[in-house]
């Protein structure tokens, strides 16, 4: 599984969290790598929002 970077921003005055992936970690990913980055982001979002809404 490909290593990727995911981060979440909370902006004052904006009612949603913004999640970004791979700002500079994967410079030119191919299609398979892009799919892995998306899967990593989905996994991260699931963990994050499960902790937020079930605590």
TrEMBL record:
The protein, known as: Uncharacterized protein
